[in-house]
Amino acid sequence: MSVMRNSILAATLAMGGLLAACGGGKLTEEAAVKTAAKPAVAAPAVQCAPGIWFCEDFQNGSSARWDILPAGGAATIGVADGKISIQKEAANSFLQYDAGKSKGVVASVSDAAFASVAAKKNADYFVEARIKPINNSTSNKFVCLLGRYQDVNNWYGGCLNVQNSASAKVEFHKANGGKWLRARQFSARTILNDQWYKLRMEMKGDTLNFYIDDDLAGSFTDATITAPGKIGFWLDNRSFAVDDIVVGDANVKPVLLSLDQPADWNSEVGGADREISVSASKSDSKPDAFSVVSSDPKVVSVAQNGDKVVLHAVGAGAATISFTSGSNPALKKTLKANIEPAFVLASTTYPKLAKKTQPAAGSKAAYADGELALSFDVAPLLSGKGSLRIFSAKDDKLVDVIKPKGESNTYGPTPDGFYRGVNMPLMRVAGKQLIVRPHVGKLAYATTYYVAVSENLLQDGKLAGKPFTGLGKKAGWSFTTKKAPAKALAALTVDDDGSKADFRSVQGALDYAMQLPKDAPVTIKVKNGTYEELLFLRAKDNVTIQGESRDGAVIQFNNFEAQNTGLSIGANKPATSGGGRAVFAVGNADMLVLDRLTLKNSHLKTAGINGQAETIYFAGDKERLIAKNANFISRQDTLQLNAYSWFYNTLVAGDVDFIWGSAKAALFENSEIRTIVDSTDAAKGGYILQARVAKAEDKGYVFLNSRITREDGVPDGATVLARSGGSPSFFDNVVFVNSKMDKHIAPEGWWTSPTPNPAKATLNSGWREFGSTRLDGSALDVGARVAAARTLTAAEAAPYLSREQVFSTIGWNPQP
């Protein structure tokens, strides 16, 4: 039995002083130490520790205590078609389910095995299990631990949404009357295939809590299912293994220990300390003590004051910082610290440095929102160490530190006090240039700064004919920023290299716009160029971003789910993460106009990494977005739209669900919807839409007089117009009217797994189509379309024949 396994078991079962819940064949940590050289011996029967209502460890090599489903009739929410078996790792046995194209409940505890728990008639209990997701190369992703299981159609589930990546979302699912609902989704965390994780779902009254490895992942309130029921497992195309299942009183909490900053710490001698808030509680939920030690105090020292721990970089090297629970010594949290030598100002000088720097050394008109660039004799190579620093020339005060990796940025505050925090690289190499983006808001107007670079930032660099040994104050890269733009400007200019612009970055102009009155119109004119940046707009109406030309003004960034998880329009306090995967995050901003520009998410999907990567996330309820004469290019999830939007004469390109969201009405008029080759599998087709419209009567996604095209290489008949998110809580409202379609669209048109809502389109809801043709205008045979879709008559299509009709509920008729 491995050390990791023993530590997880001890942490799992340490409740009220218990170190083991199953006495049949599983060792406590103490016992494992004493018998490390001896193989574990399986007991002939499962015996639970005192205080535990039910336990299962599969050490007897049998699944006889479980009903392997489907049993007693097919499940209406899915049918499992994989295989289940007992497997072994060394001396440990566990249950494994190898999924085929499986969706549904695959196992539930038998009535006989759960009889003693059922006799309690107590619906307030917890269920814990160790679960190992196993990659079975499918596109779907769920594995759920079930509680209050009544039958295959009624249960609660604490779930991992694993997909094929290390980024997983934690979710609550609910089945009620055969309808499956993803009831709540929480923030993502790293979940790796083929590794064990401890899951715990706690049900007390109408409150459900879900834990991963004894960290509270999220809570959910629901009073639909109140009977105790049983426990089980549900999946959607995800193989998994399960072991060490425990059920007990919901009032007995796990011993908890969590850190608000659990990530590894990269710093340098003399750098800022890291302060960590620690949350520790006992099984009765009362505060618990904890201890913290550094493996090498000569590298990192630790100081503890109550629930606060301060890490201080003492010397160069590596150390492991270990936090240990006071009531459960087996429960530990660790982080690694990598400390570099102290930053030293170099004394080297370089000839004609002004020609090598941007802004040029000595400049009196630098932009506070601009990037810094240093041109080398040959392409520089970043070492992954060191930093670039900006100092105030007036008093030598350190203003900003930018590192080659592990960086983030914080945008805001917006007018309503929100921030967007994102993980993002701030240093890159382009040709022979090292380009560095200062952190947002660090540089002030009309202020003089100088730049310093550590010697170890680059490998074998050469600058102005000399080996690069760093930059210090003596090198002379200093500049003075411009005065602030005049107040209350209604028109702003952004240029990446011109001398007469108001800003170097689009975000700089947006920050200015958000200081104006909410309703005051402002136009941001973007000169041709490539703007590598993320954008954030919130609580400001009537903003127009207008490019100099559609293909020449390009705003882009490589942002994606594994880098910045989920979708967000900000947090109400400064943050360095949580800002979401979209290039442009927009919230509560009415009448945003995007005109004559390209918005691109440059992320290239790779196998095993979650490739969701929006160009824009437009959030709101009554807000309106206009996009015209513009390009929106990404791969998966290109557009995420809510409220109302009008896309006129636009290109939208992507491969999977690249138009999606909860739009009340999103009209694509005279536009091109282009499927591009999937970078993970060129032989695959794609899915254009996934609508999640809140109300059946909402228009949803409407395509009028548009062209449904493909990139060269997308195969014939392999792309569908839409697939469903599979929930009864939203509607699959999509309408194609008088649109031309290339041969990549499959004859069946739509993908019916999972089943759409409504299962059969009506006049006003579901998947509908009218007047579809081939690209050359010839008639398109839609006779093979799926039964869930509806072909409209001319009279039935009338509400979708003009933008005035599509937006009739809000009386909006936007003009080109």
From TrEMBL:
UniProt entry keywords in alphabetical sequence: Aspartyl esterase, Hydrolase, Signal
Pfam families referenced in this protein's UniProt entry, alphabetically: Pectinesterase
Top-level taxonomic group: Bacteria
Domain BIG2 per the UniProt entry, residue ranges: 246-335
Keyword Hydrolase applies: yes
Position of the signal peptide: 1-20
Family: Belongs to the pectinesterase family.
Protein name: Pectinesterase family protein
Organism expressing this protein natively: Uliginosibacterium flavum
Source species taxonomy: Bacteria, Pseudomonadati, Pseudomonadota, Betaproteobacteria, Rhodocyclales
